[in-house]
Amino acid sequence: MKNSSVKYFLLIAFIILACKGLFAQPEEMSQDQYDLLKDEYAVSIIKLMIRLDTLNSDIDSLKKISDQMDNYITNSEANLYALVGATASEVSDFRKKFEETEKKINSKTGTPSDARRSYYDEISGGKIRCLAEFQERYISMKKKLEEWEGLKTTSRVEEGTYTVVKGDCLWKISELKYNSPYYWPVIWEANKNGVVNKDELPDTRHQTVTNPNLIYPGQVLKIPQLSSSEPTKEDYREKIKKFRKNRRILQND
Asked: Where are the alpha helices (DSSP H) in the chain?
């Protein structure tokens, strides 16, 4: 019911009640007392109407804020999805396939080949898996599938690229690409002199990876092929320790 309708209803109700004698003057009440009582009822109705107006105004304000927040969330999601070249509808479809595949691998339903066909290989080939809601779960799912297949969790051998999204770091990307976070120096070395899409990036800071702790969404990183002569994880652990030690020395200086 609209505000004006409620006001008119209250006013009409008051008039009708008065006309029907429901507010008839009691015998023991003087005229002055009776008039005062009617005035008090009228004031109460007016106060209720004012309160109703205030509540309805608050409701309208809250609805506007809610609409603004909904629009903000929708726009934020659209911008996030655009970073991986997808729409909300495509992410929704991907989510269904991801959850189905994740459930199949966790419960070992069917065979590993079934899991790859529906839809692990498709998921692995898409950028949407780089979104925060899928990233860690994908790494876990990948390990479980390899264990299910009886594969050794060896490093990937194919050379490729990776598009950085918000929340990424070289440690995570190394884990994703090489099944070990300790190979992040390989990615760093490959991109020190320039990322794949450096000519498309207006900010010169984003065109290279001079600091392994600073990578930016939109950078396309080279992911080198790991050869058989590549240092082991233990070798890289030692390199990382030396790098961190030298950095602390420089900071103290």
From this structure: 3-19, 31-83, 88-107, 112-115, 121-124, 132-149, 170-178, 184-191, 233-252
Q: Which residue has the tokens 């760093």?
A: 188
Mean residue pLDDT of the chain comes to: 79
Q: Report d(CA 165, CA 68) in Å as an integer.
A: 26
User: In Å, what is the CA distance from 166 to each residue of 81, 132, 206, 223?
Assistant: 11, 8, 14, 18
142 residue type, one letter? K
Q: Which residues pair with 220 in a beta bridge?
A: 163
Mean pLDDT of 87-108: 91
pTM, two decimal places: 0.38
At position 171, the amino acid (one-letter code) is W
> Distance between CA atoms of 47 and 9, rounded to whole angstroms?
15
The domain locations on the chain are 3-82, 84-153, 156-253
pLDDT mean over 224-228: 74
154: confidence class by pLDDT, cuts 50, 70, 90: very low
Dihedral of CA 64/67/72/75: which sign? Answer: negative
Question: 164 with 127: CB under 8 angstroms?
Answer: no
Phi, psi of 97 (to 5 degrees): -65, -40
